[in-house]
Specification:
The complex is a heterodimer of chains A (about 725) and B (about 650). Chain A is an alpha/beta fold and about 725 residues long. Chain A has three domains: about 1-315, 3-Layer(aba) Sandwich (Rossmann fold); about 330-490, Bifunctional carbon monoxide dehydrogenase/acetyl-coa synthase(codh/acs), Chain M, domain 3 (2-Layer Sandwich), CATH 3.30.1650; about 510-730, Bifunctional carbon monoxide dehydrogenase/acetyl-coa synthase(codh/acs), Chain M, domain 5 (3-Layer(aba) Sandwich), CATH 3.40.1470. Chain A contains 22 helices and 23 strands. In chain A, the strands form six sheets. In chain A, strands 3-2-1-4-5-6 form a six-stranded parallel β-sheet, sandwiched between helices. Chain A has a four-stranded mixed β-sheet with strand order 10-7-13-12. Chain A is globular and about 80 Å long. Chain B has about 650 residues and is α/β, with parallel strands linked by helices. Chain B has four domains: about 5-60, no CATH class; about 75-235, Substrate Binding Domain Of Dnak, Chain:A, Domain 2; about 250-395, Rossmann fold; about 405-630, Rossmann fold. Chain B is built from 28 helices and 15 strands. In chain B, the strands form four sheets. In chain B, strands 12-11-10-13-14-15 form a six-stranded parallel β-sheet, sandwiched between helices. A five-stranded parallel β-sheet of chain B has the order 5-4-6-7-8, with helices on both faces. The mean pLDDT of chain B is about 95. The chains are: A alpha/beta (about 725), B alpha/beta (about 650).
C-alpha cells in the first residue's frame, strides 16, 4: 500500500525537518551564521542541495534559505479518509528529507573531533567514513563508467545476524556492486555486523560504511548527484537533468534491512526521485506500478538469500558474471582487499624473493587449452608465513592473436588474480608481489587456480583473440631465475617497439567512448603518443579492444588529411568527434591546451591548467587535495572541465601523457610546466629529466615549483624568475 | 396529458428524488415532468426539418429521407448538416463569448484598472504568455499580462492566420489540420462564417458544410474554451486537489443559503470573498442567520469547487429541486443552462431568483447587473444582500435533504503532472507507463449535461462503473462530474471497490480517485491539453488519434455539447453520445459522422443511449488503439547492461 508508505514518508519528512531545523539553529547559536560548513575536499558544496536546488551552502547561514525551501516542500500529513493524492507530496517530502540530511551530515564536520575518518579505509577505532571526497568520487566513478562497478546498493539497517550480513555483502561484492552502508536497526548496524565477521570494509573492497545514522545515507545520494555533474556535465540546479541521469545511468537501489521507520520511508521516497527503488526484507507494503522508477518502487518481504537478485531485477540491471571454478569468490570488489602478515599463508615474489609474470603467443598446436601446471612447491607444500619465488608463465594461441596484444593480456593478470578473494597482487611484470591469505588457502585455494582464473577470464573477455590458454606457475627458484632473463629481454623489446610508434607513422587512431554511459557527449581519441585521459587505455589497448569487440566503444579512426600538424588536427578525427559527440564538439586538437583542447568525461588522472601571467602551465593530479596556483583545488577545477565540455586553458590528461613528446607540444610541451604537486613531481622525476634534457633543459626538474614553493601564481612566478624557468623566454601562449 | 414517470424512474439521485416527491406534493412543475408532458418533435429530433428560410419550414420524412427535397431543393443531408453545423456554431459562440468575457476581465486586471479581481497564478500567466507567442524575457509581469490579455482578445476577432492555442496540439495533429484547411483563422470569424454558410441558398453540400463546422469546433476547444480556462486559472487560481461536499444536502438550515448558478466564474469568485465579508456576515446575523452559506451549482460551481472547495448543490437537472428545498434564499444566475422555469418556480417558494448578466434576462426574474470589469464588488454586495434580506421569509416549506457526498476534485493538467511525480519528477510518464504495461487500459473523458429525457445521473454512473471495472481511468467535467461526485466516485477510497485490479493499484499508488474532476464544461480544454501531454510524453503514438482513449457525453442536452463533441472528434478522439442524436439514420450525412470522418480526422462520432453498450464501444475502441500501438501483450522487462546504457539517448 502506497498510502501507508507515503503517509510514513510524509510523517518522517516532518520529523526530520523539525530535527534538522533545530540542529541548524543550535549550530548558528553556537558558531554564528558566518561559520564555514562543508564536506571535505569537494567542489560541489553540499552536493544534493547544490545539484538539485543549485544553492551553494558555504556557511551555516546559507542553510536558512534551504530550510525555507524544505518547509515549502513539506506537504500536509495524509488524512485517514478523503485524502488528496499523496504520491507527489510523498516524493516532495522525501526530497526535502534528503536536503535536511545533507545539512545534518555537514554539521557533523563542525564537531570536534569529526565523527568520521577521512580517507579510503576505516581506522581501528572508527568504522565510519562519512562523505566521499571528490578524489574518491572521481577515482571510483571510473569504475561506474567502464562498467566494472555496475551500480551501488545503499544498505540501511542491519541483517538479523552478522552471518547473513556478510553473505549479502559478499553477494553484492561478487557482482561488483558498491555497497554504501548507513543507519542501524535497533542499534545494530550492517557495518558492525561485517566487522564482526572479519569482512574488510572500506572503499577498496567496495563496502563503504558511511555512518551509523540514517542521515549518513545522504553520502550515497551525494555521490550519485556529483556523478551527474562531474561525468554527465549536468548543471547544478538542473534537477530534472540530474534525476534523469541517475535514473538511467547510475544503477543504484536501496536495500532496507530491519524495521522500516518513518525516517526510512522518507529517505526511500527521496531517492525514488532519483529512480532508485527500495527492496526490503521486512513485511512492509509495496509500491509496484511503474513510472517514477523504471520498474517497481518498493518491493518488500524478500528473503535474504533472494534480496540481491531481486534488487538487481527491480532496478533493471543486467550483470553478466563468469563463474570461475575456484574455491573462493572472484570479483573486482576483492581487488582492494589487504592481506596483512598475520592473515597471510605465504608471500610470493615481492621484495624478498624473485618473481615476475609473463604472457607470450605460441602457435595453436603448441598450446594445450586449460593446462595448468605448478613447477615447484604448491601452496600446500609451503611453510606458513614464509616467502617464495614465483613466475606466472602464460601462453596463449589464437587465430586473431597478435604479439602486440601480449602486454595487454599480461597486464590483465594483475586485476584478474587480485580479484580472487584472499589473493593479493601488486605490481606487474618483474615487480610482482603476491600474498595468499590463510582463509583462502584453508578453503582449498592452490596455485593451479591462478590458471583457472586466467583461463576463464581470458576466454570470456578476450575470446575473439584468444583460442587457447595454458598457464604454468613456477615456484622452483632456479627455474624462476632462468625464465626471468627471457622475460626481461621481451619486456625490453616491447618497450622499444612502443617507443618507436609515433602519431606520424600510424594512420589509424582509436576512439574511446566507453564513458558515454556516463558522459554522453565525450569522445576520447587515443593516439600512440596520447593515451586516454583516464590513464587506463593506450593505443594498443584501443586496437586490441576493437579486435575483440568490433562494434564496441573503441573504434578505429582514420586520421585523414592533416589540417594542422602543430595543433594535431586531422579531418578524419574531427569528423569522428563531431558525429560521436552528438555534434557537441566540432573540432579538436590533440596537442593543444589553448586551441580546441580535447574534452574530458571527468575520469582524468590530472588536469593541465594555463597560468596566464606566468605564460606557463601547471599540472595537478587528483590525489592532491590542496590549493593550486590557479586559485582552485583539483576538486573545483575538475568541476569546470568534466562532462564533455571543451574549455581552452583546461585539459584533463593521463599522467603518462606528461612524458609524451606530444604533451601540449603546440604550446611548447613540457618546458611550459612550472608547477606540479610534490608527489606528482617526484613520481615523474625520470620522465621530466629525460624530456627536459631532450628539449635542451636538463635541469628542468629543479625549475618546476611545487606547493612548497608556492600556491599562488605570483609565488610561482617569483620562483620561476629565481630559477630561470624556460617558459619565461617562450612565446606568449595566447 | 401524458403520464408522469414514477420518481424512481426519473433519477437515481436520492436528494433529487426526495425533492421531486416534495415538489409533486406541493403541485409544482419541474422540467422532468414537462419532459414527460412534451414529447420531442420527431421530425426535429432527426434533423429532418429546416427553418432556415421562410419559404418553409420544410420537413422531410425520416423514413424515406431521399424521397423529397425542401422548397429550395435542399436534401436531407443538407438539412442535417446545416442543423448540426449551426449547433456547433452556437456551442462555439457560447464557450467563446464566455472566453472573451474572461479575456476582457483579465485585461482590466492586468492593466491595474480593476482591483476587484487579481492575478493569482503568475507562474501560469508566464507559461501561457509563452504559449501565446509573447516574448516574456526582460518584461515585467504587468507588461506581460497586458500583452497576454490583448493577444487573447485578438484571437476572437482575428481574420487571418490561425488560432494560437492549436499549436499546443501534437505536431502531427497540427499538420493534419493545416493540410486539410481546418485551422480556424479567428474564433468569431468561424462562427460568423458558419452562420453565413448555413443561411438559405449558400453551402448546400453536407461534406463541405461539415468541413467548415470542423474548423469552427476547433475554434471552440483550442480557442475560446482554452482561453477561458487558462485565464480563469490565472485569475482565480489553478485547481489543486481539494476536498468538497456535493449535493442538495449542502444547504444549511440556519444560514443564508446563496446559490450561484451558471458558467462564468467571476460572479462566484466575488461571492466567495463576500461570503467572508465581516459587514455582510454581521448583516446576516442581524437577519437571524448563523452565517452565509455560499453554494455553487452547475459549471461556475464546478470551477469554484475545484479551486476553493466551495460546496456544490448539484447539476443542471437539480436546479428545480434546489429551489424546492425551500432553503434557498437567493439563486443568482449568469449565463448558459439557466432554465426559464426557475423564475416561476422560485415564486412558489420564498427564493429570490436574480439574473445578473446583461446577456441573460428572464421573464419574471429580478435583475441586478454584475460586470466583472467594473463595480463588481458593489453589485456583489447588492446581490448578497438580497439573500440576506430574504432569509426571514423562509416559510414552512423548508426540507433540506440529508444527502451530501464528500469528494476530492481539482485535477487540472498541472495537478496531474504534479501528483504523478512531485515537484522534481512531475510528468505524465507514470500515466503512460501504466497504460503501456496494461494496468490502465486507457482513459475516458466522460462529460456533458444531464437531460430529463433519461434517468437522471444513471447513464453517467453506469457507464463510468463499467469503464472502471475495465481499468479505464475516467476524467470528467461539467454536470457529468457532478453525477459521479454525488454517487461517491470521487472519494479515493472507492478505487478498490469499483476498479479493475490494475487501475485500483495505480489509484492507490498515487492516492487519487479513479474519477478525476477537472472542472466545468469550458474546462474540457484541460482534457485536450492532457491528451497532448500524453502524446508528448511518449510511448503512445504521435497523435491524439493514436491514444487508447475515448470520450462520451451520456446525458447531453445542449448545443455546447455538440460543439465539444465535434472538437474532440476533430482532435482525434472517438466520441460517443447518448440520449438522442440529431440525424436521420441511413443518410450520407449520418454515415459521414459515424464513419467517413475517420478518414479526415482519425476519429468518428458514435451514438448509443445504453450505458453498458456505450462502455463496450469505448472499451473496444481503446483495445483497438492498444492493439495498433502493440501494447496489448505484456512486455518483457528490459535489463540494462553497460552496452545498453551507452546506447541510451536521453
Amino acid at each position: 500500500m502506497s498510502k501507508i508508505i507515503l503517509s510514513g514518508a510524509i510523517r518522517g519528512g516532518h520529523e526530520v525537518y523539525a530535527r534538522v531545523e533545530g540542529k541548524v539553529n543550535d549550530a548558528i547559536a553556537k558558531f554564528g551564521a558566518d561559520k564555514e560548513v562543508k564536506f571535505p575536499n569537494t567542489g560541489y558544496y553540499l552536493p544534493v542541495i547544490y545539484g538539485i536546488l543549485g544553492m551553494k551552502v558555504e556557511t551555516l547561514g546559507d542553510m536558512l534559505p534551504v530550510l525555507a525551501r524544505c518547509k515549502e516542500l513539506l506537504p500536509p500529513l495524509v488524512k485517514d479518509n478523503l485524502w488528496v493524492p499523496y504520491l507527489g507530496h510523498g516524493l516532495d517530502a522525501g526530497m526535502q528529507t534528503l536536503f535536511c540530511f545533507d545539512m545534518e551530515e555537514a554539521l557533523k564536520y563542525l564537531e570536534d573531533p569529526i565523527p568520521y575518518c577521512l580517507g579510503e579505509d576505516p581506522t581501528e577505532d572508527n568504522l565510519w567514513m562519512g562523505a566521499a571526497d571528490d578524489v574518491i568520487m572521481r577515482k571510483r566513478g571510473v569504475e561506474f563508467v567502464d562498467g566494472s562497478a555496475p551500480g551501488f546498493a545503499a544498505v540501511v539497517g542491519a541483517a538479523p545476524d552478522s552471518k547473513t550480513a556478510a553473505s549479502i555483502a559478499k553477494e553484492l561484492q561478487e557482482k561488483g556492486i558498491y555497497v554504501f552502508i548507513a543507519g542501524n536497526d535497533n542499534g545494530t548496524s550492517f557495518s558492525e555486523q561485517l566487522a564482526e565477521e572479519d569482512v574488510q570494509v572500506g572503499w577498496p573492497t567496495r563496502l563503504v560504511p558511511f555512518g551509523r545514522d540514517t542521515s549518513a545515507a545522504i553520502h550515497a545520494v551525494g555521490f550519485a548527484t556529483r556523478a551527474a555533474m562531474a561525468f554527465g556535465g549536468v548543471e547544478p540546479g538542473d534537477f530534472a537533468g540530474i534525476l534523469k541521469y541517475n535514473q538511467y545511468r547510475v544503477f543504484a537501489f536501496v536495500v532496507a534491512l530491519g524495521k522500516v521507520t518513518d525516517e526510512w520511508y522518507a529517505a526511500a521516497a527521496g531517492v525514488i526521485n532519483y529512480g532508485f527503488p527500495t527492496i526490503a526484507d521486512s513485511d512492509i507494503p509495496e509500491v509496484l506500478p511503474t513510472g517514477v522508477c523504471t520498474y517497481e518502487h518498493v518491493v518488500s518481504n524478500i528473503a535474504h538469500d533472494q534480496i540481491v537478485a531481486k534488487a538487481i531485477e527491480v532496478r533493471g540491471l543486467k550483470i553478466q558474471i563468469t563463474k570461475i571454478d575456484i574455491p573462493v569468490s572472484h570479483s573486482p570488489a576483492f581487488e582492494g582487499e589487504r592481506i596483512s602478515r598475520d592473515q597471510m599463508h605465504v608471500e610470493l615474489a615481492g621484495p624478498k624473493a624473485e618473481g615476475f609474470e609473463f604472457c607470450r603467443t605460441l602457435e595453436l598446436d603448441e598450446v594445450e587449452d586449460g593446462k595448468f601446471e605448478v613447477v615447484g612447491p604448491d601452496l600446500s607444500d609451503m611453510e606458513e608465513g614464509k616467502v617464495y619465488p614465483l613466475a606466472i608463465w602464460v601462453e596463449v594461441a589464437g587465430r586473431n592473436m597478435q604479439p602486440d596484444f601480449e602486454p595487454i593480456l599480461e597486464r590483465q593478470i594483475h586485476h584478474l588474480l587480485n580479484g580472487a578473494e584472499g589473493v593479493l597482487h601488486i605490481g606487474q611484470r618483474d615487480i610482482l608481489w603476491m600474498r595468499i591469505s590463510k582463509k583462502s588457502f584453508g578453503a582449498g585455494f592452490s596455485l593451479k587456480h591462478f590458471g583457472t582464473v586466467l583461463h576463464a577470464k581470458f576466454h570470456n573477455e578476450f575470446g575473439k583473440i584468444v583460442d587457447k590458454v595454458q598457464v604454468t606457475m613456477y615456484t622452483d627458484p632456479a627455474k624462476v631465475t632462468e625464465l626471468m632473463e627471457k622475460a626481461r629481454a621481451t619486456y625490453k623489446e616491447r618497450e622499444e617497439r612502443l617507443g618507436s610508434m609515433t602519431d606520424e607513422n600510424i594512420d589509424t587512431y582509436y576512439s574511446c567512448t566507453l564513458c558515454q554511459s556516463f558522459a554522453p557527449d565525450h569522445v576520447c581519441v587515443i593516439t600512440p603518443e596520447r593515451p586516454g585521459l583516464c590513464g587506463a587505455y593506450n593505443w594498443l589497448d584501443g586496437k586490441a579492444a576493437y579486435e575483440i569487440t568490433p562494434t564496441g566503444p573503441n573504434q578505429p579512426i582514420e586520421k585523414g588529411e592533416v589540417l594542422d600538424e602543430t595543433l594535431g588536427k586531422w579531418t578524419g578525427v574531427n569528423q569522428f568527434v563531431y558525429t560521436n559527440s552528438h555534434e557537441a564538439v566540432p573540432e579538436f586538437s590533440a596537442y593543444s591546451l589553448m586551441v580546441d583542447p580535447m574534452t574530458s568525461c571527468g575520469c582524468f588522472e590530472a588536469i593541465t591548467v594555463l597560468m596566464p601571467m606566468a605564460n606557463a602551465v601547471m599540472v595537478v593530479d587528483r590525489d592532491f587535495a590542496g590549493m593550486t596556483p590557479c586559485g582552485m583545488p583539483f576538486s573545483t577545477l575538475a568541476g569546470s572541465c568534466g562532462g564533455g565540455a571543451q574549455t581552452p586553458g583546461f585539459v584533463g590528461i593521463s599522467k603518462f601523457y606528461i612524458g609524451s613528446k606530444k604533451f601540449i607540444s603546440a604550446e611548447g610541451g613540457i618546458l611550459r610546466v612550472a608547477w606540479l604537486p610534490k608527489g606528482l613531481k617526484e613520481a615523474m622525476k625520470e620522465v621530466i629529466e629525460t624530456r627536459g634534457a631532450e628539449m635542451g633543459c636538463p635541469d628542468l626538474y629543479e625549475k618546476i615549483a611545487t606547493e612548497e614553493d608556492g600556491v599562488t601564481e605570483e609565488e610561482v612566478m617569483e620562483f620561476m624568475q629565481k630559477v630561470g624557468h624556460p617558459a619565461l623566454e617562450m612565446d606568449s601562449m595566447f | 396529458m401524458a403520464k408522469l414517470r414514477e420518481i424512481q424512474d426519473i433519477t437515481i439521485c436520492e436528494s433529487t428524488a426526495e425533492m421531486l416527491t416534495k415538489g409533486r406534493k406541493e403541485g409544482v412543475s419541474t422540467s422532468f415532468d414537462r419532459a414527460d408532458e412534451m414529447k420531442p418533435c420527431p421530425i426535429g429530433a432527426q434533423q429532418a426539418c429546416c427553418k432556415h428560410c421562410f419559404m418553409g419550414p420544410c420537413r422531410l420524412s425520416a423514413k424515406a429521407p431521399y424521397e423529397k427535397v425542401g422548397v429550395c431543393g435542399a436534401n436531407i443531408d443538407t438539412f442535417q448538416a446545416r442543423g448540426f453545423a449551426r449547433a456547433i456554431a452556437a456551442g462555439t459562440a457560447a464557450h467563446s463569448d464566455h472566453g472573451r468575457e474572461m479575456a476582457e476581465l483579465f485585461l482590466s486586471v492586468a492593466k491595474g484598472e480593476n482591483s476587484d479581481f487579481e492575478i493569482k497564478d503568475e507562474k501560469k500567466m508566464m507559461v501561457f504568455a509563452g504559449q501565446m507567442g509573447i516574448e516574456t524575457e526582460g518584461k515585467d509581469n504587468q507588461q506581460v499580462g497586458i500583452e497576454l490579455g490583448e493577444a487573447c482578445l485578438a484571437q476572437f476577432g482575428q481574420q487571418a492566420g490561425h488560432v494560437k492555442g492549436l499549436e499546443l496540439a501534437p505536431p502531427k495533429r497540427f499538420e493534419l489540420w493545416k493540410e486539410k484547411g481546418y485551422l480556424p483563422r479567428g474564433v468569431d470569424r468561424e462562427v460568423v462564417e458558419m452562420m453565413h454558410r448555413t443561411h438559405m441558398g449558400v453551402d448546400q453540400e453536407y461534406y463541405n458544410i461539415m468541413q467548415g463546422a470542423i474548423r469552427c469546433s476547433l475554434a471552440d476547444g483550442w480557442g475560446g474554451s482554452l482561453i477561458s480556462t487558462e485565464l480563469s486559472d490565472i485569475m482565480f487560481g489553478t485547481p489543486k486537489p481539494i476536498a468538497a461536499e456535493m449535493d442538495l444536502g449542502v444547504f444549511e438550515k440556519d444560514q443564508v443559503n446563496v446559490i450561484v448558478h451558471g458558467h462564468e466564474p467571476q460572479l462566484l469568485d466575488m461571492m466567495v470573498r463576500l461570503a467572508d465579508d465581516k459587514k455582510l456576515l454581521a448583516k446576516a446575523k442581524a437577519a437571524g442567520a448563523a452565517g452565509i452559506n455560499l453554494v455553487g451549482m452547475c459549471c461556475s460551481g464546478n470551477e469554484m469547487l475545484i479551486r476553493n472547495g466551495i460546496p456544490h448543490a448539484g447539476n443542471f437537472m437539480q436546479c428545480d429541486t434546489a429551489i424546492i428545498t425551500g432553503a434557498v434564499d437567493v439563486m443568482m444566475v449568469d449565463v448558459q443552462c439557466i432554465m426559464a422555469s426557475l423564475a416561476e418556480l422560485s415564486k412558489c417558494y420564498h427564493t429570490k431568483f436574480v439574473t445578473t448578466n446583461y446577456r441573460c434576462h428572464i421573464d419574471g426574474a429580478e435583475h441586478v447587473e454584475f460586470h466583472g470589469e467594473h463595480d463588481a464588488r458593489a453589485a456583489g454586495i447588492e446581490l448578497m444582500e438580497i439573500g440576506i434580506n430574504n432569509f426571514k421569509n423562509r416559510g414552512d416549506k423548508v426540507q433540506i435533504p440529508s444527502t451530501k457526498t464528500k469528494m476530492i476534485g481539482g485535477f487540472s493538467h498541472e495537478t496531474i503532472n504534479y501528483m504523478l511525480g512531485g515537484s522534481f519528477r512531475g510528468s505524465y510518464t507514470p500515466l503512460n507507463e501504466n497504460i503501456i504495461n496494461g494496468r490502465i487500459r486507457g482513459v475516458a473523458g466522460v462529460v456533458g449535461c444531464t437531460n430529463p429525457r433519461v434517468k437522471h445521473d444513471w447513464v453517467h454512473v453506469e457507464l463510468v462503473k463499467e469503464l472502471l471495472k475495465n481499468d479505464v481511468l475516467v476524467v470528467q467535467t461539467g454536470c457529468s462530474a457532478i453525477s459521479l461526485a454525488k454517487a461517491g466516485f470521487m472519494d479515493p477510497a472507492i478505487a478498490k471497490k469499483y476498479c479493475g485490479p490494475g487501475l485500483a493499484e495505480v489509484c492507490e499508488t498515487v492516492g487519487m480517485p479513479p474519477v478525476l474532476h477537472s472542472g466545468s464544461c469550458v474546462d474540457n480544454s484541460r482534457i485536450l491539453i492532457a491528451l497532448s501531454e500524453m502524446v508528448k510524453t511518449g510511448g503512445l503514438g504521435d497523435d491524439i488519434s493514436d491514444l487508447p482513449v475515448a470520450g462520451a457525453a451520456p446525458e447531453y442536452m445542449s448545443e455546447k455539447a455538440i460543439s465539444i463533441g465535434q472538437y474532440f472528434v476533430s482532435s482525434g478522439v472517438y466520441t460517443v453520445f447518448g440520449v438522442t442524436f440529431p440525424v436521420t439514420e441511413g443518410t450520407k450525412f449520418a454515415d459521414y459522422l459515424f464513419g467517413g470522418m475517420e478518414e479526415d480526422l482519425g476519429a468518428t462520432w458514435a451514438f448509443e443511449p445504453d450505458p453498458y453498450k456505450m462502455a463496450k464501444m469505448m472499451i473496444d475502441h481503446i483495445n483497438k488503439k492498444r492493439e495498433a500501438l502493440g501494447i496489448m501483450e505484456k512486455k518483457e522487462r528490459v535489463l540494462f547492461d553497460m552496452e545498453a546504457r551507452r546506447q541510451l539517448e536521453l
